[in-house]
Amino acid sequence: MAEPTRGLLDTSVVVDHDVLDAGLLPDESAIAAISLAELAAGPHATDDDDERARRQDRLQWAAATWDPLPFDAEAARAYARVFAATKAAGRSSRPRVADLLIAATAVSNGLDLYTRNPADFLGLGQLLNVVEV
């Protein structure tokens, strides 16, 4: 019998979780505290009342579903490698700081990163396995 797959879900996967094919997701999943922060900011980023309510519901669901992995000292050390790989690939890290912090969390925990936006993680293939969902 195969080992269960384990992975860190990028914020994009959490946002679309209810419409994704469960077969594309890992057997055991986690989210990063950075994703929870992005979800917490979401309701404040829209003026549409219905969308704000949907985003608040998603935040509450995610917070109740996962105990997020922290951005700790090990993740901070991994971020240096993620930053260097991004720079070596000729990409700017500035506009994607949250994505790179999430990637560093995956690296520090030895998890594959499941995302809807694999282009956000180009150049990191030597550090982690990015799985497009």
Structural class: alpha/beta
Neighbour order of strands in the largest sheet: 2-1-3-4
Instruction: Report the C-alpha radius of gyration, rounded.
Output: 15 Å
Number of helices: 5
What is the typical, i.e. mean, pLDDT?
A: 96
Low-confidence stretches: none
Which geometry do the CA atoms define?
globular
What is the makeup of the main sheet? 4 strands, parallel
Quick tags:
133 residues; alpha/beta; 4-stranded parallel β-sheet; 5 helices; 4 strands; 11% strand
Characterization of this structure:
- The protein has 133 residues and is of the alpha/beta class.
- The protein has helices spanning 11-16, 33-41, 49-65, 73-88, 97-109; strands at 6-9, 28-31, 112-115, 130-132.
- It has a four-stranded parallel beta sheet with strand order 2-1-3-4.
- Helix 1 (11-16) links the parallel strand 1 (6-9) and strand 2 (28-31).
- Helix 4 crosses helix 5.
- The longest helix has 17 residues, at 49-65.
- The chain is globular, with a radius of gyration of 15 Å.
- 32% of the residues are buried.
- The mean pLDDT is 96.
